[in-house]
C-alpha cells in the first residue's frame, strides 16, 4: 500500500476525472428518494447515507475533496449518494399528510434503490443516523452488503438524555423551523468545540458552510428523519450475526463516542476495526477526512482494492469476497492491528 507522505500526494483535477453527479429521483413503496451517482456504473457500488439534516454535499464533500481519498474511492467505486427523504438539494416540503417513515422503511428504501440500479452486493458508508440506517439495512439484507464503513455510528435505542435532546430539536423544528437554536444544536452534534469557535476562536469555514446548508433544508423534512431516528430500536443483539467486514471511525469529542465503542464491542472483532480520531467531533468525513485515508486503504486492500499511483490508468476494479486475502481476516489485521488507532491532526503532532 502506498503511504500517505507529502511526496506521495496526488494532485487531482476533480472536474476532469468525473462529470457532475447524475441525479435520480426513485419512487419506492415508501415514497421517493433522491440518489446522486458519481463515476462509472460498471464499477462496484459504494452506497453513502448522511446524518440528520445533511446530504451528500454537506456530509461527504470534505472526504471527496481530499485528493488521495477521492482517488482511492473513485478508482474503485461508482458512488451512489442516497439522501434521506426531503434532504436532497432543492427538495420540496414533503406532504404533511404523508406518514413519517420508520427506520425499517428507510432501510427498505435502500433495497429498492439497489434494485432500480440492478446492484447486488455493495459497500456502504454512513455517518451517525445514516450509519444506523445502513447497519439496519445490512442486518435485514445480509447478502447485499459486502462491507460497512461507519462514522460515529448509532446502534442502541436513544438514552433518556438523547431522546430528550432530540425532542427539543424536534419541537423547535416543527414550530419554529430551522432557527438559530436548532442550527447550534445540530452543529454541536456534528463538530468538535474547537472548530465551532467561540469567544476566542473564530468559527471555521467548514462550520460556516454547514450552517448555510442547514438553512436550505426544509425543516419539516428534517423533523421527519429525526422522529424516525428518535424511535429507533436497539440493534445490539443482531450485530454478532453480521459477518461483513466493518470499519468504524469516531471522533474522541463526538457525543456518540461511547456508542461507537459499544457497537465495536458487539461486532465480531475478527471482522471489525475501530479508528478513534483525536480532536474531532462526529463528522470525521468533514472535520478530519485525512484521518480516514490509511485505515480505508487497509480495509479496501482486503477486497483486492487499492489506491493507484498517479500515473496509472483507472481500470474497472473487481469487488468480491473471493478477492479477500485470507491473512486480512486475521485478528492481527482486523483486530489488534487496527483497534484502536489513535490519530491526530498534523498541526498537533
Structure notes:
The chain is an alpha/beta fold and 349 residues long. The chain contains 14 helices and nine strands. The protein has helices at residues 14-17, 56-64, 67-76, 103-117, 129-140, 160-176, 180-190, 193-196, 205-215, 219-230, 257-266, 284-287, 293-301, 331-336, and strands at 22-28, 31-38, 45-49, 78-82, 122-127, 145-151, 245-251, 272-277, 341-343. Strands 1-2-4-3-5-6-7-8-9 form a nine-stranded mixed beta sheet, with helices on both faces. Helix 5 links the parallel strand 5 and strand 6 (145-151). Helix 6 packs antiparallel against helix 10. The longest helix has 17 residues, at 160-176. It is globular. The model is unreliable at 1-18 and 311-349 (pLDDT under 50). It comes from Pisum sativum. The chain crosses the membrane at residues 116-139. It holds the Pfam family Ndr. Keywords: Membrane, Transmembrane, Transmembrane helix. This is Protein ndl2.
Q: What's the order of the H and E elements?
A: HEEEHHEHEHEHHHHHEHEHHHE
Order of strands across the main sheet = 1-2-4-3-5-6-7-8-9
Q: Percent range for helical residues?
A: 25-40%
Tell me the fraction of residues in β-strands, as a range. 15-25%
Mean pLDDT: 85
* Alpha-carbon distance between the two ends: 23 Å
Overall SS class: alpha/beta
Q: Any idea what the shape is?
A: globular
Distinct helical segment count: 14
Poorly predicted residue ranges: 1-18, 311-349
Cα-atom radius of gyration:
19 Å
Q: What kind of sheet is the major sheet? A: 9 strands, mixed
Number of strands: 9
Organism: Pisum sativum (Garden pea)
Pfam families: Ndr (PF03096)
Transmembrane segments: 116-139
Protein name: Protein ndl2
